[in-house]
Amino acid sequence: MNMNQIMAQAQKLQKEMQKKLDELYKQDFTYDYQNGSVMVTIYGNGTLKSIEINKTLIDPEDPITLQEMVVEAVNSASEQVKAKADEIQSSMMPQGMGGLF
What we know:
53% of the residues lie in helices and 18% in strands. With 101 residues, the chain is of the alpha+beta class.
């Protein structure tokens, strides 16, 4: 395989990966923290779409617990999106060529 063929293959793979990532960015990911206590929806690009909080958790005397739950839910949702993006990128890399791109 000559260098032009390798470069053409690399460009093709890069375009395919970008297409899959663009599709990912349009998807919604919802994370359910503690059976509906806090629901976080995040787009595939990492932008937060919405947060729903069970009203029974809103305690004016204890805002810290709710804040911690929201932070954990948002972080978990973000981790799911990142894992999906990593999965897409890994699946697109030819065996033995991971370090080239």
